[in-house]
Every structure is written in C-alpha cells, then in structure tokens.
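Quick review question:
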C-alpha cells in the first residue's frame, strides 16, 4: 500500500438482510448469512468507495485485510453500492467503509442496536405495531426513536428545505416589488413625456405606434437586465450547489423559466403606462406643464 493512501475507513456492524431491507444494491459477491457466526471465518462487505480507495478493481472478492485493533484478517465476500450513513447526512460524500456481521463482533462493541423494518403496511401503522410486538417478547426491553426513513431523510435536509422556502418567498416578494417599481417608473416616465407624446399625436403619430415605442423602451431594459441576471446566476451557481442538496446551479430550464417569468412581469407592469401614453389627448398634452 503506498504511503500516500489514507487507510482510515468507516465501519458498520449489521445483520444479514440489511442491504435488501434498505434497497442497497449488492454489486458483487454475497450478502451476510446466518452461518457467519463467531466460529466461522471472519468476513466483511465493502462499499464502492472502499474498492476505489484501495484500487481493488474487480478483484475485491476474496481479498483480505485486517481492521484496526483486530487480531485476525477478514475476507471480503461482497461489494455493495455507496449509501449515505447516519452522522454524515445525505449531502456528505460517502466515505470508504466496510460492514461486519454482528455475530462476529464482540458484544461489548455493540452497546445498542438499531432495527430497520420493511413492510407492505402503512408506516404509521407499523410504528404503532412495533412496540407491541417487542413488548410481547420482552416487556422490559425499551423501544425508542421510532421514525420512518422518510422522516429521517427530512431531518437531514430540513435546513435545505427551509433555505429553499425562504428563497422562494423572497424571490416572489422581489418580483412583486420589481413589478411595482417598474410600473411606477414607467408611469412617471410617461408623465414626464406628456408634451412630447402629445406633439407626436398632433403631428399624425398613430396611438398604437406610441404604445409600441414605450414597450420597446421597456423591452430593451428587460434584455439588458436579463443578460446581467443570467450572468450573475451562473457565477453564483456553485454557491447554490454547495448549500442545497440535489440542486444544480446550471439548469438551463430554470434560466429560461426565470426569463419568461420576468418577461411576463415586465409586460404586465408596462401595459398600463403604454396604454396611457397612447390615449393622451393632444391638446391637453400641449397645455401640460
């Protein structure tokens, strides 16, 4: 093993059937069996990151290694896909890790146990049934921290969901404020150009042409603002990817949707002032101060 290779790996003590229960694919070899007892040869199952870390390639099955603090080597009998583990969260990179059957581990290293139950019945009903089933076996055995995998996943990403909700709320508020500001600015701009618009009408300008002129002015501002906004969004994309789980900072569909929403908001905010500009009475406009 080259000295530069980090030999620190995570370990997990599990029972046979855990991977099937959680839906973790078995990529090579076999799962643990009831025959993997304390008297049987010691075995382990490793994940993809373990194989990549130690460059085992397709020859992982049958290889041996000695866990830190162990007195004997263990044989790799299976390879499973990487799966997030408790304590690192779903966003963290899955570390290299190996699994050992609980029957081959000193009970002193397993002070408490966590059970995963998979059933066809509703999770809520299962949560109520588990304490009763345990009590039927041993009334003195405590059962605590019951929750579904969906709830556990929610606990891991609740901050991301909060940030997403706040971001969505602030974006809606910003859009409304932008629409109000744009409407006020265009209304003021049309009022300042009342005499000019009236003179154009007096000289024979068609009202629809004045309306198109105002909308063209707004369209130019929209194109410039959209270009600047997209450039800023691309520049800040990596920050978004680091903060939110499963969200890409470079989603063309999101950019197009944002541009469409912005265009609709601008059109709605500019329609009133543009119509007002087209309906200015020429003589009243010429007398306007």
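Suggested answer, residue by residue:
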């Amino acid at each position: 093993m080259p000295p530069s290779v980090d030999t620190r790996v995570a370990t997990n003590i599990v029972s046979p059937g855990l991977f099937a229960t959680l839906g973790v694919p078995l990529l090579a070899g076999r799962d643990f069996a009831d025959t993997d007892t304390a008297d049987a040869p010691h075995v382990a199952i490793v994940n993809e990151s373990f194989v990549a870390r130690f460059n085992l390639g397709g020859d992982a099955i049958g290889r041996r290694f000695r866990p830190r603090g162990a007195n004997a080597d263990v044989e790799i009998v299976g390879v499973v896909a990487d799966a997030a583990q408790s304590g690192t969260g779903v966003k963290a990179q899955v570390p290299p890790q190996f699994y050992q059957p609980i029957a081959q581990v000193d009970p002193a290293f397993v002070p408490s146990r966590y059970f995963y139950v998979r059933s066809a019945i509703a999770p809520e009903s299962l949560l109520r049934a588990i304490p009763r089933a345990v009590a039927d076996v041993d009334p003195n055995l405590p059962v605590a921290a019951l929750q579904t995998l969906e709830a556990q996943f929610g606990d891991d990403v609740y901050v991301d969901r909060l940030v997403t909700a706040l971001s969505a709320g602030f974006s809606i508020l910003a859009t409304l404020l932008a629409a109000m500001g744009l409407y006020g600015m265009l209304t003021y701009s049309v009022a300042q150009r009342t005499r000019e618009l009236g003179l154009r009408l007096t000289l024979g300008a068609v009202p629809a042409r004045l309306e198109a002129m105002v909308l063209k002015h707004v369209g130019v501002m929209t194109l410039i603002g959209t270009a600047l906004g997209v450039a800023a969004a691309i520049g800040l994309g990596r920050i978004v990817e680091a903060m939110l789980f499963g969200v890409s900072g470079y989603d063309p569909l999101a950019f197009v949707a944002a541009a469409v929403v912005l265009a609709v908001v601008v059109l709605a905010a500019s329609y009133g002032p543009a119509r007002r500009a087209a309906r200015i009475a020429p003589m009243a406009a010429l007398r306007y101060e």
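Why it works: The chain has a mean pLDDT of 80. Residues 10-114 form one domain.
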